[in-house]
């Protein structure tokens, strides 16, 4: 009996040793759960022309990585550009459209592929791939919208090609054939001007799902080759044809441009690096439909600091100028919100005259942002400002002094701030996220450079002359309080020359 007990305890000890070894080496999971191994994730190999370049800023890299999360790995040599999560069909299964390019095609097109969850096999599966008209990966914007009016979302891919032309490619699936029906390419346009989707108001019956809505049309603006004036354009309208299931050209019209000295035009629109950027370096006020300047809405292009500041509805938004591409009539700029890395804007800027430009802005956003102002339209230059007075007069911002626990803090119109008590200075920006007003402070380091670390605060008004700041973290989907003590800022009147 004693020998049996001894053998039993020895066996238990040996078994414990084996279990400890398995747990320490990680083999226990593979031994007991052989069918639950983690599948290898897609390796993020960033294309040379994308924000993943070695010389890209940390903010660009963060925004780039947040836009890439495919459900299944792509094939070898396929590089993810952007991912769109949506539900196109009537079922509740998650679906993805992934834009990618192939490394073997150095100047080849950008492709999209469709990924859908298979409830029978309980896994995501890649169904098909198709090319688009875009070739420059960094300019690609991928989104979905009901263009036809039947509440069936179309996949829309915009971008630029190797000739610096704007492109638009639209895909649509006939849901009557089921969720596995292939997508058809219903529009593909490329032009040396700009492309605009013209949205029309749809009835309440459409909003309530009772009837279909009117289809949107597409307008493309290109050069009028028969005119001697470079700014004269041809407008081409495309409408959806239910018989063919595609967008087809319906009419064209000539649009006369401003009469400007042609040699000056050729200099500005030559595509030479920095020429058009230097031209737009200024403050531009929005021109209302009545032709008057609206000084409550403006855009400031700071090509030296590589920033674009949008001001409208008393909200200032600061964007880092990531990259730009010359176009037939101006420049195409990709910029990223300095405070929220998941918010990018594509800004198409065209020359109207020597003191006016036309701006078209499209959002590429992964976070719900409150943007009440529409930035599309004409803008007129605020005025010729000498370099000596440009900095203090043109930079949008507030000009006020506040007492705080940090010391006396002053906000300058230039977008700079100083804190006397801490001998601190840096940059500031007010912006809105999820319906909440936020303030971001970006203190300079000892060398006078603005580091990557930034501090965001929730702004709560206290009467007319004070507000509180609460430290928060802005993430993809929420504004989270960091449970630090509130900071009260009380405005003080400063007497100059005292």
Q: How are the SSEs placed, and which strands pair?
A:
Blueprint: H1 2-25, H2 27-32, H3 58-66, E1 78-86, E2 95-102, E3 111-118, E4 123-131, E5 141-145, E6 154-160, E7 166-173, E8 183-191, E9 194-198, H4 204-207, E10 217-223, E11 233-241, E12 246-255, H5 262-268, H6 275-280, E13 282-287, E14 293-302, E15 307-312, E16 315-326, E17 330-337, E18 343-353, E19 356-365, E20 377-381, H7 387-394, E21 400-404, E22 407-411, E23 416-419, E24 424-433, E25 436-443, E26 455-461, E27 466-475, E28 478-481, E29 487-492
Antiparallel strand pairs: 1-2, 2-3, 3-4, 5-6, 6-7, 7-8, 9-10, 10-11, 11-12, 13-14, 13-20, 14-15, 15-16, 16-17, 17-18, 18-19, 19-20, 21-22, 21-29, 22-23, 23-24, 24-25, 25-26, 26-27, 27-28, 27-29
Give me a quick take on this structure.
This protein has helices at residues 2-25, 27-32, 58-66, 204-207, 262-268, 275-280, 387-394; strands at 78-86, 95-102, 111-118, 123-131, 141-145, 154-160, 166-173, 183-191, 194-198, 217-223, 233-241, 246-255, 282-287, 293-302, 307-312, 315-326, 330-337, 343-353, 356-365, 377-381, 400-404, 407-411, 416-419, 424-433, 436-443, 455-461, 466-475, 478-481, 487-492. It is mostly beta strands. It has three domains: 58-255, no CATH class; 265-385, Beta Barrel (Lipocalin); 397-492, no CATH class.
Which residue ranges are poorly predicted, with pLDDT under 50 across at least 5 consecutive positions?
Answer: 25-60, 62-66, 366-372, 384-395
Number of strand elements: 29
For the biggest β-sheet, the strand order reads 13-14-15-16-17-18-19-20
- Given the structure, what is the number of helices? 7
